[in-house]
Each structure stands twice: as structure tokens, then as C-alpha cells.
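Quick one, C-alpha cells below. Sequence please?
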């Protein structure tokens, strides 16, 4: 077997995720020779975070050119339309998809936030949902890697910050989580907490390796969530939340579209067979658009 080169961004979280994937691949394929290669993306070079796909493009270019054989992504960063010649071969078992609240002094909880509390996040989805929950909150822009954001909790005198729980868990920072946020307050981003192993079409060896980490239940759940996002025609930065779960053999998708100020929410639920996950997401998106979602989407484009 040839050396399989696995591409990743160079952030601590990205490298931690990729090293985890490589360790699992070595368990499944002890004879395989695996090498990690760090790729710098536009997002790592400071591109405007409001742009689409800033953490993906350079990794996919490296895949196409043969510089790497498998790209490891945070699934929520990937566009819902797959580029020609590339495919997602494996979606490993998902880490907790919820958002996490990190309160001031590690003690403050969301229900204890004082009136006018300052909460840090740069996510339009989180901002819209926070304002829908409590319109008195001051949502403060918060960018940077996880460590930088945690430091800004103190340096910018914030009452709390919102982060993806999965990132903190993967970095062994569970002790920093004040609470996991209930999805009734913050519906996660579609695909949050999941990884995607992307390969070139026709590369059977890389495909087989990546597929060995695939978790069928996780894949069905994220397919439904991403199908909803795709059906709306919205990018990964839009104020869209989606979370699917399996109940026995039934897949249930809860998803919503928010106006930027959180004053308008269109939320729905659909259930069906895991084998029709993508179609379920598309169906729910159609219902949301018909229920007034088109006006919200048009306002987001202005």
C-alpha cells in the first residue's frame, strides 16, 4: 500500500481531530503508512469570516492535485454541494453536537445572566437565537481560535461566551464548560460536532480507508441537517439551526430559520426513514420557505 497523505488545517483543534482520525485508521489498517500534511487555508490567513468556505478550498485543491489523499474537515464548514471529482467517504461517530456556554469565573449559568449581560459570539445563528431567547442581551463579536476566545471572556469583560461543545471536548477542556445549552434555546449548526473525510473519486484505497471510520447513524443525522440547509439555499453562515436524532428506526429532524435580529423564527419537525435523510431535510426546508422563510432569506441577502 502506498503512503496515504492526510490533509488538515494547522489549528490545534484541526490537528487534534486529524490525529484522532489517524489513530482510528491505524487501528483498522495497522499495515497502512499514514502521513499528516498541514495545509494553510484562507481562513487561517485571516480572511473575512463572513465569506463562505474559507476553511475548505485549499484542502480540496490539494486533494484534486494529489498533494493529499484524504482531507479531514469539520463537517459544518463544508458546503452542501459536493465539488465535482471529490466525495465524502467517511463521517465518523459524532461528538456532542450542542453549543456550550462558558460563564464568567466558570460559575455563571445562562439562566443567571443579569439584564443586559454581555455574551460573546460571532455566529449569526447563535446571535439570532440568543436574542430570540432574551432580547435584552448584548451580543459581542468574538473571533479567534478556542484559546483566544476563552481569554477574551476575561479581557473583554464578558459575562459568558458560546462555543461548540465538540471543540472543547476534543481538546480535553470539558472543565471549561459551564453548561451544555439545550437545543430549545440554541439549535446547533447543521453537522456540528461531526467530521468529514473527503477523498478523490476513483481513489479506491483512500476511499476504503476513510469509509472504515463511517458511522451510519451519524451520517444519516447530518445528511438530514445538511439537506435542510441545502433546501433553503443558505450558506453555512446563515442563521439556520438543525438537529436530527434517531429514535429506534425513526429519524427525527428539528430545524429552524431565524431572522438576523431573532424576532422571527420559523421552526419545524419532520420524521422518516434514515435512508431518506437528505430528502427529509429538503422537504422540511420547502415547508419553512412556504411558511415565510423566503422573506427571511431575502432579507439576509440585502
Amino acid at each position: 500500500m502506498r503512503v496515504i497523505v492526510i490533509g488538515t488545517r494547522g489549528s490545534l483543534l484541526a490537528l487534534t481531530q486529524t490525529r484522532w482520525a489517524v489513530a482510528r485508521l491505524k487501528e483498522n489498517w495497522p499495515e497502512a503508512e499514514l502521513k499528516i500534511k498541514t495545509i494553510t487555508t484562507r481562513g487561517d490567513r485571516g480572511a473575512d469570516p463572513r465569506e463562505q468556505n474559507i476553511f475548505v478550498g485549499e484542502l480540496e485543491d490539494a486533494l484534486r492535485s494529489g498533494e493529499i489523499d484524504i482531507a479531514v474537515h469539520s463537517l459544518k464548514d463544508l458546503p452542501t454541494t459536493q465539488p465535482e471529482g471529490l466525495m465524502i467517504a467517511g463521517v465518523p461517530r459524532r461528538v456532542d453536537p450542542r453549543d456550550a456556554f462558558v460563564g464568567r469565573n466558570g460559575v455563571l449559568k445562562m439562566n443567571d445572566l443579569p439584564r443586559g449581560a454581555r455574551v460573546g459570539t460571532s455566529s449569526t445563528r447563535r446571535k439570532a437565537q440568543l436574542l430570540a431567547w432574551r432580547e435584552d442581551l448584548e451580543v459581542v463579536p468574538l473571533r479567534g481560535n478556542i484559546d483566544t476566545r476563552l481569554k477574551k471572556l476575561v479581557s473583554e469583560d464578558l459575562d459568558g461566551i458560546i462555543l461548540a461543545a465538540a471543540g472543547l471536548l476534543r481538546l480535553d477542556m470539558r472543565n471549561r464548560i459551564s453548561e451544555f445549552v439545550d437545543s430549545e434555546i440554541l439549535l446547533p449548526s447543521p453537522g456540528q460536532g461531526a467530521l468529514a473525510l473527503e477523498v478523490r473519486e476513483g481513489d479506491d484505497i483512500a476511499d476504503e480507508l476513510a469509509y472504515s471510520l463511517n458511522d451510519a447513524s451519524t451520517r444519516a443525522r447530518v445528511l438530514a441537517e445538511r439537506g435542510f440547509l441545502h433546501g433553503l439555499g443558505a450558506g453555512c453562515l446563515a442563521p439556520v439551526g438543525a438537529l436530527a436524532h434517531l429514535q429506534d428506526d425513526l429519524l427525527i429532524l428539528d430545524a429552524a430559520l431565524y431572522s438576523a435580529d431573532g424576532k422571527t423564527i420559523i421552526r419545524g419537525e419532520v420524521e422518516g426513514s434514515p435512508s431518506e435523510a437528505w430528502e427529509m431535510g429538503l422537504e422540511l426546508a420547502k415547508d419553512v420557505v412556504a411558511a415565510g422563510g423566503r422573506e427571511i432569506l431575502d432579507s439576509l441577502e440585502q
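The CA atoms of residues 111 and 235 lie 31 Å apart. The radius of gyration is 19 Å.
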